[in-house]
């Protein structure tokens, strides 16, 4: 069984968050490189940012402390792990009131197959991205779990045929 860990920065979310405008060109170079290779050595990262290793490490720590860097992860290939089916699910609730939203969001937190969940404007209240090994598993998730969450009134699903674009790196060059 393959396992992976997400290492979240315990200091992320503190009140001293940096403003994007406070990032200089060196910070953007550091972030751009870390987004493509979080395992880069400090020496190589320093070279990329035209810094010596000590100031480079200090800048990275500052970016971590300020919450700009939230953590470091290992990205896994879902198909290599047998998670061959991906689906987007739109969920509508009976009423969009605080207690119903909280109940739904707490339930979703407990479902590992839900990779992303967004509170939406428009026709549905939530948009989920779900992965599973097969269609039978997705059916079971929808019928036995999702549909049984209190206040769920409508579920619409779309199975993906092909992933056209996927990225995790934010567009640092737009800052």
């Amino acid at each position: 069984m393959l396992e992976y860990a997400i290492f979240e920065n315990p200091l992320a979310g503190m009140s001293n968050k940096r403003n994007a405008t406070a990032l200089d060109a060196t910070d953007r170079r550091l972030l751009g490189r870390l987004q493509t290779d979080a395992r880069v050595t400090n020496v190589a990262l320093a070279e990329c940012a035209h810094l010596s290793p000590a100031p480079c490490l200090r800048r990275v720590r500052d970016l971590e402390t300020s919450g700009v860097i939230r953590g470091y992860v290992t990205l896994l290939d879902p198909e290599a792990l047998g998670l061959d089916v991906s689906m987007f699910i739109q969920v509508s609730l009976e009423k969009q009131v605080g207690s119903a939203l909280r109940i739904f969001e707490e339930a979703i937190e407990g479902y590992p197959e839900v990779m992303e969940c967004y509170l939406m404007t428009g026709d549905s209240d939530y948009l989920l991205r779900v992965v599973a090994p097969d269609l039978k598993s997705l059916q079971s998730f929808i019928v036995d779990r999702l549909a049984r969450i209190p206040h769920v009134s409508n579920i619409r699903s779309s199975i993906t045929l092909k992933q056209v674009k996927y990225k995790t790196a934010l567009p640092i060059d737009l800052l």
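The chain has two domains: 7-72, 80-159. The chain has five helices and six strands.
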